[in-house]
Structure formats: structure tokens, C-alpha cells
Design brief:
- By secondary structure, the protein is α+β, with helices and mostly antiparallel strands.
- It folds into 2 domains: about 5-215, Orthogonal Bundle (Endonuclease III, domain 1), CATH 1.10.340; about 230-360, Nucleoside Triphosphate Pyrophosphohydrolase (Alpha-Beta Complex), CATH 3.90.79.10.
- The chain is about 45% helix and about 15% strand.
- It has 15 helices and 8 strands.
- The protein has helices at about 5-20, 25-30, 30-40, 45-60, 65-70, 70-80, 85-100, 110-115, 120-130, 140-150, 160-175, 180-190, 210-215, 275-285, 345-360; strands at about 230-240, 245-250, 260-265, 265-270, 290-295, 300-305, 310-320, 330-335.
- Strands 1, 4, 5, 6 and 7 form a 5-stranded mixed sheet that branches. Strands 3-2-8 form a 3-stranded antiparallel sheet, with no helix packed on it.
- A hairpin with a 4-residue loop joins strand 6 and strand 7.
- The longest helix has 18 residues, at about 5-20.
- The radius of gyration is 24 Å and the shape is elongated.
- The model has no long low-confidence stretch (mean pLDDT about 95).
- The structure holds iron/sulfur cluster.
- The site of iron/sulfur cluster (SF4) has 14 residues, from helix 10 and helix 13.
């Protein structure tokens, strides 16, 4: 691209952003902590989904020091429903490193940010540019969509070679005088105008130079190779009560998916098993107890990023044995009305709502 075209692109984009940017709490009150928190929350999550969580978290933890000294279970409970829980666990660890090694000050340069565990190139570039005005271009899903359309790139954008090419284009286009604003502007354009479906090209500030617009390819760019069919697992879990009426819950180990969250024990159905046999076997193998099942709850379907599940849950009682945390990091007997105090995955939470309604 010629330098005049780059200058025109920057001018059109920034001019549009000045007039059209949304008011967002992390934008209106820009601090390094709010930027770090919002960038982590916005990974694979829409603004409208992240917004209430951001407000809740900044109310509880106005500073990174408040967050770093909080109880991790409390953080996971507040994060419940936002998904991708490893983000919360990793951010907690990152915050503790920043408090311990940097006296609670989020570093102001890209390379130091990148050296901190839990901060990758995207987050480092976002903080360095938006908070400290350093010239680092960010490339997220919005930027990929805008630039692949703008330049008419027909290669698969999920491939690292294409992503690298887009990063190079963003590095070329970024306005060195206003790097943070430029990054925000291009992401904002992707979120509000250059949307995945039905982009509003008629009102787009950069349409005069956009290749996908002029060649009628906005429906086919960005191109993503079709995904493989995702597996579907049937999971059997038990809501098992002891003689007092308390329910057994188990905490998932940190190194597993949804680590640190609580759940009702159970596991994947094996070939040739009924779901009741699955639950009884899982309690035997993972908890070391014998149980009896009484009746099923409605089946809950849930989709994760790489697979889907049907969650089959049964109400039952403990018959014999002392529960042990063989596969989980901790187990507990709790009263049903205490279920709200523990962080559970979304599918389990739907079941809890059902259990609590049933008890009323
Ligand atoms: S003209 Fe349309 S396709 Fe091109 S960048 Fe703007 S909104 Fe996206």
C-alpha cells in the first residue's frame, strides 16, 4: 500500500472512531488493570456478555492488588457463566506475579509484559498501545475480519501463515502517533460495522478502498475451512445425598478442563453401559463409594468449543464407603442451599436451578 493510501485509511478510521465509539467502562476509565482485566474477559467473548462481569469484578477488585489477594474460589464463583475458566485462574496467577515482582505496577513496555506468565502477544500489545501509547498493532478476530476483507485475502484465516500476514498488514497500517486509538478503532469497526454477517458497508468509513466490498466478496471473506464434526459425549453424574440430606460435590483438578470448579461426581458413558451403570461405576472408581440411584433429572445439553455433551443426572443416596478425592482435588458434603456458594460449570448450574426449584 502506498503511504498516501495508508494515511487515508488511518484518517478515515480514526475520524469515524472519534464520532462513533461506544462508551465502555474500560475505555472511559482507562487504567492498566482495567485494560488487562477487560482484554482477558473479551477473549472469545462478546462485549455485551463481558460487560456485567467487568462491572462486578471492578466493584470487588478495584485494583490489581485487591484481585491478587482475593480468595481464588471467590473469583471463580464471580466468573461463573463467563466460560473459559482457565482465563480466571491464569489472570489470578498473573496478578500475583505483578504484585510480587513489580510492586503491583503493570509494566509499561511490551517486552516486559510479554515476559510475564499469562500475558501473550495480543494482551501485551493491547496494554502497551492503549495504556502506554506504544506502537504495537493488536490482531484479534475483529481485526482479522476487517483486514482480510479490506485486502481481499481469500486464504484460510485460521492458518498461522494467514494470521502472520494479517499481523504484518496491521503493523504497516498502525498510526504511530495514536497507536492505542488506532487499535481500538479497528476492533470497534469489526465489532459494529464490519460484522461477521451482513456488514454495514454503506456506512463503513474505509469502503472506498475495500477489496471485498468492491468485488462483492463480503460473504465469502474471511474464509475458514469447514470444521470437523464435533464429538458428542454422554456424561452421567450423581446428585448423591448422605443420611443427613447433604449432597456430595467434588472440585476439578487445576490441570483439567474447568479446573478449580466444583461439580457433581460422574463421568463419560462407556460403550455397552447404561447411564445408571456409568454413574455407579464412576462413584466406585473416583470416589470409592457404593451408591443407589433413585430417579433421573431432565437431560441437559451443552456445547463446549470442541465437543458437545448430554448431561444425564440421577438423584441417589450413599449406601456404603467413605468418600475419597481420588480424581478430584477436594470433595465436600454440603447442604443443597449452599450450592449457590460454589462455582459450578454452566451445565451443572442448570441442574442446580432445577434441584433448588424441586425443593421449594
Ligand atoms: S466496506 Fe464492508 S467489508 Fe469492507 S471493511 Fe467496511 S464493512 Fe468491512
Amino acid at each position: 500500500m502506498e503511504s498516501e493510501q495508508i494515511a487515508l485509511f488511518q484518517h478515515q478510521l480514526l475520524n469515524w472512531f472519534t464520532k462513533n465509539q461506544r462508551s465502555l467502562p474500560w475505555r472511559d476509565n482507562r487504567t492498566a488493570w482495567f485494560t488487562l482485566l477487560s482484554e482477558v474477559m473479551l477473549q472469545q467473548t462478546r462485549v455485551d456478555q463481558a460487560l456485567p462481569y467487568f462491572l462486578k469484578f471492578t466493584q470487588h477488585y478495584p485494583t490489581i492488588q485487591d484481585f491478587a489477594k482475593a480468595d481464588r474460589d471467590e473469583i471463580l464463583l464471580l466468573w461463573e457463566g463467563l466460560g473459559y475458566y482457565s482465563r480466571a485462574r491464569n489472570l489470578y496467577e498473573t496478578a500475583q506475579i505483578i504484585v510480587r515482582d513489580f510492586d503491583g505496577n503493570i509494566p509499561n513496555d511490551y517486552q516486559t509484559l510479554l515476559s510475564i506468565k499469562g500475558i501473550g502477544p495480543y494482551t501485551a500489545a493491547a496494554i502497551a498501545s492503549q495504556v502506554f501509547n506504544q506502537v504495537y498493532a493488536v490482531v484479534d478476530g475483529n481485526v482479522i475480519r476487517v483486514l482480510s476483507r479490506f485486502f481481499g485475502l481469500t486464504d484460510d484465516v485460521t492458518k498461522s501463515k494467514t494470521k502472520k500476514q494479517i499481523q504484518e498488514l496491521a503493523d504497516t497500517l498502525i498510526d504511530s502517533k495514536n497507536p492505542g486509538e488506532f487499535n481500538e478503532a479497528i476492533m470497534e469497526l469489526g465489532a459494529t460495522i464490519c460484522k461477521p454477517k451482513n456488514p454495514i458497508c454503506e456506512t463503513c468509513p474505509i469502503s472506498s478502498q475495500c477489496m471485498a466490498f468492491s468485488t462483492l466478496q463480503t460473504d465469502s471473506i474471511p474464509y475458514k475451512a469447514p470444521k470437523k464434526k464435533v464429538p458428542h459425549h454422554h456424561i452421567g453424574i450423581g446428585v448423591i445425598a448422605n443420611h443427613e440430606g447433604k449432597i456430595l460435590i467434588a472440585k476439578r483438578p487445576d490441570d483439567k478442563m474447568l479446573g478449580g470448579l466444583w461439580e457433581f461426581p460422574g463421568g463419560k458413558q462407556e460403550i455397552g453401559e447404561t447411564i445408571e451403570e456409568t454413574i455407579i461405576r464412576e462413584f466406585d472408581e473416583e470416589i470409592g463409594v457404593h451408591i443407589e440411584l433413585h430417579y433421573p433429572y431432565p437431560i441437559i445439553k451443552h456445547a463446549y468449543s470442541h465437543f458437545k455433551i448430554s448431561l444425564h443426572s440421577w438423584k441417589g443416596i450413599l449406601i456404603s464407603g467413605v468418600p475419597q478425592a481420588k480424581e478430584s482435588s477436594e470433595i465436600k458434603w454440603i447442604w443443597p442451599d449452599e450450592l449457590a456458594n460454589y462455582a459450578f460449570p454452566k451445565a451443572n448450574r442448570k441442574l442446580i436451578d432445577y434441584i433448588l426449584t424441586e425443593q421449594k
